């Protein structure tokens, strides 16, 4: 069984993230969407909120997708979950250059047990990032081009609490 892990902060999950999730299901038997607990990144949403947004989007009924959280080394998380494929979405050549070093390191740290698969972003999502969603939300811009409608409502509510 091929188990893939798509790790990220997903703060919030975007249409680009969701596109990578759907494409990942074509090459894995099971996909774990791993939400990073990164204390170095100051995000908008708590770990549980981010996990819940992903579950809302992918649907609880999809038994091939599991949403989990982790901190520490991705390789350790992979081993704990019996996963052998790291999924990485790429928006631009600069993403590839950045991710390639991690791919080699993860391969070596796993003694060759883990491979990284790069999935290019769909053209319409190449510019998209969670930070661009947050920036757009703060100025009241439309969010439908960035995130699913269900996620947009959650983001708008968060803006209200941030702005007071």
UniProtKB/TrEMBL annotation:
Its main location: cytoplasm. InterPro entries: Cyt_trans-like, PPAT, Rossmann-like_a/b/a_fold. Gene3D superfamilies: HUPs. It is an enzyme of class 2 (transferase). Its EC number is 2.7.7.3. ATP binds at residues 9-10, 17, 89-91, 99, 125-131. This is Phosphopantetheine adenylyltransferase. The gene is coaD.
């Amino acid at each position: 069984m091929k188990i893939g892990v798509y790790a990220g902060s997903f703060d919030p999950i975007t249409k680009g993230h969701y596109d990578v999730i759907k494409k990942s299901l074509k090459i894995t038997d099971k996909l774990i969407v791993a939400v990073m607990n990164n204390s170095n990144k100051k995000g908008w949403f708590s770990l549980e909120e981010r996990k819940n947004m992903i579950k809302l989007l992918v649907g609880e009924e999809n038994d091939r997708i599991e949403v989990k959280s982790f901190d520490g080394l991705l390789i350790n998380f992979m081993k704990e979950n019996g996963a052998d494929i790291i999924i990485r979405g790429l928006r631009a050549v600069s993403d590839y250059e950045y991710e390639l070093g991690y791919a080699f390191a993860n391969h070596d740290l796993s003694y060759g047990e883990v491979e990284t698969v790069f999935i290019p972003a769909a053209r319409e999502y190449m510019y998209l990032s969670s930070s661009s969603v947050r920036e757009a939300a703060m100025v009241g811009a439309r969010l439908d081009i960035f995130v699913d409608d269900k996620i947009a409502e959650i983001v708008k509510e968060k803006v209200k609490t941030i702005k007071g």
